[in-house]
Amino acid sequence: MIRILEDDPVTNAGTGSNLNLDGLVECDASLMDGTTLGFGSVGAISDFKNPISVAAKILQESDQGALSLGRIPPIMLVGPGAAQWVETMDFPSSLSHSGLQRVPRQPSADALAIARELMSEETGAARKRDNEESEGTVDKESIALEIDEDQLQDTVGAICIDSQGRVAAGVSSGGIAMKFPGRVSEAALFGAGCWAQDATEDTDGFTCSLTGAGEQITKTLLARTCMETYLSHDDISEVSHQVLDRFMKSPLLKGYPDKHAGWIGAKVDREDGCGRAEFVFAHTTQTMGVGFMSVQDTKPTTIMSKKTPEATKVVSTRMVRL
User: Fold this and answer.
1) Domain boundaries, the chain
2) Which listed residue, 36, 50, 256, 289, has the most CB atoms within 10 A of its CB?
3) How far apart are CA 58 and CA 170, in angstroms?
4) What is the pLDDT of residues 81-116, one digit of tens each?
C-alpha cells in the first residue's frame, strides 16, 4: 500500500516528494513488524523510487540476526550509505519489481531555480526581521511567506492486521518543503513515526502510523507514547483525547506556537482472538485524509477529516471486523 502511495505524485512521498533547499528530493521511511518487533528505516535518501522498499529490506535483513564476525545489522541507514548497502546485499536483479529501483533524482533547472528563489526569499525575510526587531519596528505580517494551502502535502502511512491478528506499520515522507539537506523526519526514527506489536497473553496488540510536524513528533516519541497509553486503558476514544492533550501541552514543545500531529491506529484485543479490532484516527492538524477496509468490505472507506474552527483536535473510533 505505501509503495502505491509513494508512486502517486499527489502525495509527499517517493515520486511526489517536496524539494529541499538545493532543489533535491530526500526521503525518509520506516517499517515495524509487530511479530518480531523488528524495525527498518532510511533517512534522507535521494535515489530510490520506493524508499519504503529499502526500509523493508533493512527490516528483513536485521531480523536475520548477527552478521559475520558478530556484527549487528543496521536498522537505520541514511544518505548515500543506504544505496551502498543495497549494492552490497546482492538482491535479485528485478529491482523495479521489488521497489528497489534506483532513480537518481537530479534537480531540473526550473526546480533548482525555484528552490534558490525561495531560499533567497526566506533568507531575506529573516534578515529583514532581524534588522527590524533590533530597531523595534518589525511587522511580522508583512514578511510572512505566502503558501497556498492547496499545495501543502503530508506524510503517508499504513497499518495492517492479518487474519491471525498480527500487526505491522509503516510510514514514508518527503519531508517539509525547503528543508535543509540532510534533515531527517519522524518517518525514519524508531518510536516516533510508527509502531507495531502483536497481542500476547499479557497485553493487547497495537499498531499506529503518524503524520504531522516531524520535530515535534520526534521530541515526544509519539508513536511509542501512543502504544504505552492505549495499552494501559480500555476506552480508546478517551485515550486519544488524553494523548493529544498531553502532546499539545508537552513542555518539550513549549517553543512551538502550534502543535501538529495525527495518527491512524488499531488495537487488537488479546481475549477476542483475531475477530475484530478497534480502529482510531486522531489529529490536531486542520485536515487528515484517512482510508480503511477489511476483508469484509467490497471497497475502502475514505474520509477527509476536518477540524472545525472551534475545535483543537479530532478523534474518531470504530470497530472493524477482520
Assistant:
1) 194-321
2) 50
3) 13
4) 999 998 888 765 444 445 566 665 555 555 555 445
Tally Cβ neighbours within 10 Å of residue 320.
Answer: 16
Q: Which of 11, 15, 155, 284 is catalytic?
A: 155
The residue written with cell numbers 499506529 in the block is 208
d(CA 58, CA 285): 31
Strands 167-173, 194-197: pairing is unpaired
> Is 88 noted as a catalytic residue in this protein?
no
d(CA 2, CA 31): 10
Fold of 194-321: Glutamine Phosphoribosylpyrophosphate, subunit 1, domain 1 (3.60.20)
Q: Cα–Cα distances in Å, from 157 out to 185, 262, 299?
A: 13, 11, 19
Q: What share of the chain is helix, strand, coil (3-state, %, to 5)?
A: 35, 25, 40
DSSP secondary structure code for residue 18 in this structure: P
Q: Please give the helix or strand (H or E) that residue 279 lies within, else none.
A: strand 276-283
Q: What digits encode the pLDDT tens for the residues 217-246?
A: 999 999 999 999 999 999 999 999 999 999
Q: Are strands 39-45 and 76-78 parallel, antiparallel or unpaired?
A: parallel
